[in-house]
């Protein structure tokens, strides 16, 4: 009996190890293109390395996209155009997303607490650790007050927060907490609805100068 119990225990242990390894592989990103960039989020118990990568990848994607129509487009202009397009439902995510950002998104999808399947306004979980981190650190006082009021009253949505956000899009250039919100709620959350089988990943990518001062 003891031998049988020992065998069952060993088999269970082996299955558990294999399961944990599979989960680790699913939740890991094979390449971090922006690992050498400055840390932008310093609060909360979450995979900050992944969220940093997600933010920089997003910023590179929107600059690349809007540079297609204006080769002199700046990061400031790309934020302005993207935020407006996203709020008014004009953003063409299949044209914006790059192959690397798609891989980042696939990893983000495994961040279970990040998403809320019952949220009809957005896939983002507004009660998640990362959103709480953002809400406590937005630099602009008026935006922070509005953000927290919407969260507290369970009224938060991209559309409602979008109105004040559109007039202060420049803030995202210096405030990476706000920029992370934009990336998560107006970009990555929307990628759930994209048919990636129809996305062309062969488009060239821009090189963002993250050290360049915002205009």
Walk me through this protein's architecture.
It is a single chain. The protein has helices spanning 2-26, 48-67, 75-87, 93-96, 99-108, 129-137, 141-152, 158-166, 171-174, 176-187. Helix 2 runs antiparallel to helix 5. It is mainly α. Helix content is 55%, strand content 0%. The longest helix is centred in the first third of the chain and has 25 residues, at 2-26. It starts with a helix and ends in a 28-residue tail after the last helix. It is built from ten helices and no strands. Mean pLDDT is 85; it is low at 8-26 and 210-215. The protein is globular, with a radius of gyration of 20 Å.
Q: How is the secondary structure organized here?
A:
Blueprint: H1 2-26, H2 48-67, H3 75-87, H4 93-96, H5 99-108, H6 129-137, H7 141-152, H8 158-166, H9 171-174, H10 176-187
Helix pairs in contact: 2-3, 2-5, 2-10, 3-8, 6-10, 7-8
Task: Characterize this entry briefly.
This protein has 10 helices and no strands. With 215 residues, it is mainly alpha-helical.
């Amino acid at each position: 009996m003891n031998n049988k119990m020992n065998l069952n225990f060993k088999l269970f242990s082996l299955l558990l190890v294999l399961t944990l390894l599979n989960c680790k592989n699913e939740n890991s990103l094979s390449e971090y293109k922006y690992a050498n960039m400055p840390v932008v989020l310093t609060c909360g118990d979450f995979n900050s390395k992944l969220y940093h990568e997600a933010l920089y990848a997003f910023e590179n994607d929107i600059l690349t996209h809007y540079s297609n129509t204006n080769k002199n487009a700046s990061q400031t202009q790309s934020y302005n155009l993207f935020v407006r397009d996203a709020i008014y439902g004009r953003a063409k995510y299949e044209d914006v997303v790059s192959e690397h950002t798609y891989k980042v998104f696939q990893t983000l999808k495994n961040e279970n607490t990040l998403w809320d399947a019952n949220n009809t306004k957005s896939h983002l979980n507004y009660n998640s650790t990362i959103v709480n981190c953002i809400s406590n650190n937005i630099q602009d006082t008026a935006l922070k007050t509005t953000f927290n009021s919407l969260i507290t009253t369970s009224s938060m949505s991209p559309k409602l927060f979008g109105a004040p956000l559109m007039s202060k899009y420049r803030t995202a250039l210096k405030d990476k907490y706000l920029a992370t919100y934009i990336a998560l709620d107006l970009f990555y959350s929307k990628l759930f609805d994209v048919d990636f089988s129809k996305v062309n990943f062969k488009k060239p990518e821009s090189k963002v100068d993250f050290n360049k001062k915002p205009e």
